[in-house]
Amino acid sequence: MKKFYILILFSCVLSISFSQTSADSLKTEKWKNEILNDQNLDATEHISELQDVDLSALLKTDASDQPLGFISDNYERFDIFFTSVKKNDARKNEYLITGKTRVKQNVCDFKGTINLTSAKYYIHKSDLGNYPDSIHLGILIGTYLFEEDPTQPHTGKLQGFLAVRYYVTSGNKILIDDWNNTNNNYSNQQYVGSWISYDGRKIQQCNWGSYRIPASGDLDIGKNEFSPSDKYKANGWEKYPSLFNTIWWK
């Protein structure tokens, strides 16, 4: 009888984990498809033109404007910072990433990769803000896999999709799109995916981005800028934004 109850409990855990995985996967796929199917994107693919260009600067995190993030259905505050971003010369469009994550007081080291899979230009950049006619506005799309140090507590891997907007100047310089970062609803460097514990028993939605968090449900109630709902204040957002830009990863 004891074995029977253990089997039922194990089945329930698997069922919950599977349903959570399915729901998280659907959210990620929906977000990715919305990006890929944007009618304002020209169909021409430009990723091959960028494979020999070092785009590390477009992927780096900014200490003065750190990423905003959440983990789990309770929108627990999630912090992440890239301490190193290097182009992998041996593999086209792959970047080697090292950094740290933080949930509450738990800080973990991680390393992994970003693979850029697509680069397209916007047809009407005016739909996204005020840009000069002389620039080309584009978006990079890719996948990421970051593995936290398994010797540290509460660790797993992060995987999903990312989208980064950039622009090309008349002099062919490629820069991160921060042109309209003071405008309402500006966002960039958007990551959507999951955190998966190494034993596979815990799978949680985990998203982050610059200025705004993608696919953040009812967490963000801000009209002009990110503002966490009081409903989730106790989940790490109590002191936002007063202690937001502290250097926690050193």
N-to-C series of helices and strands: HHHEEEEEEEEEE
Proportion of strand residues:
35-45%
Q: What Rg is obtained from the alpha carbons, in whole angstroms?
A: 19 Å
Average pLDDT, to the nearest integer? 89
Structural class call reads alpha+beta
Largest sheet: 10 strands, antiparallel
Whole-Å distance between the termini? 52 Å
The count of helical stretches stands at 3
- Number of DSSP strands? 10
Q: What's the number of domains? A: 1
C-alpha geometry:
globular
Helicity range: 10-25%
Poorly predicted ranges:
1-20
Q: How would you briefly describe this protein structure?
A:
The chain is an alpha+beta fold and 250 residues long. The chain has helices at residues 2-36, 47-50, 56-59, and strands at residues 68-71, 76-77, 79-87, 94-103, 106-121, 136-148, 156-168, 174-176, 188-197, 203-210. Strand 4 (94-103) and strand 5 form a beta hairpin.
What can you see in these coordinates?
- This protein has 250 residues and is an alpha+beta fold.
- The chain has one domain (2-235).
- The chain has 3 helices and 10 strands.
- Strands 1, 2, 3, 4, 5, 6, 7, 8, 9 and 10 form a 10-stranded antiparallel beta sheet that branches.
- A hairpin with a 2-residue loop joins strand 4 and strand 5 (106-121).
- The chain is globular.
